[in-house]
């Protein structure tokens, strides 16, 4: 015999109510995520944009600085990029500046640039490893500049030095 009960069957609720609750939870999560992005990430974007504008202004100022350096007897050479003699798959990039005694000479600076580039192609990685190797490279380049300029260049300044 079957027993009949008067209690209604307990369910999880109607599918419509569960859908509405799910949408409410997703709406709250979306709103919280938007608030988080607006308060945490947006100020960082504003700071980065301001930094980019400062960099653009500095680039304009660097042209003025280059003109001032030329007036003070300093010529920045074009970057020198060349493969090393050994191992040949490694390359070197140098950015140098020459400090002239008196009036700078652009033709002499170009001749020195070509001379340094030819020298760099004869250097091996083992010769320029470490602090001592770097000092030897600086001394060798300074000696070549002194010979080429006949004393008209007082100093060679290394702006960048990269080996890959």
From TrEMBL:
Record carries keyword Transmembrane: yes
UniProt membrane topology term: Single-pass membrane protein
GO biological process, one term: chemotaxis
Keyword Transmembrane: yes
Pfam families from the UniProt entry: FliL
Compartments it resides in: Cell inner membrane; Cell membrane
Major localization class: membrane
Keywords for this protein: Cell inner membrane, Cell membrane, Cell projection, Chemotaxis, Cilium, Flagellar rotation, Flagellum, Membrane, Transmembrane, Transmembrane helix
Record InterPro entries: FliL
Origin: domain of life: Bacteria
GO-annotated cellular components: bacterial-type flagellum basal body; plasma membrane
Family: Belongs to the FliL family.
Protein name, entry field: Flagellar protein FliL
């Amino acid at each position: 015999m079957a027993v009949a009960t008067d209690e209604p069957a307990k369910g999880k609720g109607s599918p419509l109510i569960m859908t509405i609750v799910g949408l409410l939870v997703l709406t709250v999560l979306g709103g919280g995520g938007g608030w988080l992005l607006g308060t945490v990430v947006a100020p960082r974007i504003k700071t980065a944009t301001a930094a980019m504008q400062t960099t653009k202004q500095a680039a304009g100022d660097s042209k003025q600085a280059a003109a001032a350096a030329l007036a003070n007897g300093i010529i920045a050479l074009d970057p020198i990029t060349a493969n090393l003699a050994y191992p040949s798959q490694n390359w070197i990039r140098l950015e140098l500046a020459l400090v002239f005694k008196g009036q700078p000479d652009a033709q002499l600076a170009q001749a020195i640039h070509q001379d340094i580039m030819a020298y760099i192609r004869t250097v091996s990685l083992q010769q320029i490893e470490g602090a001592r190797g770097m000092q030897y490279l600086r001394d060798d380049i300074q000696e070549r500049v002194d010979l080429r300029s006949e004393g008209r260049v007082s100093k060679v300044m290394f702006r960048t030095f990269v080996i890959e």
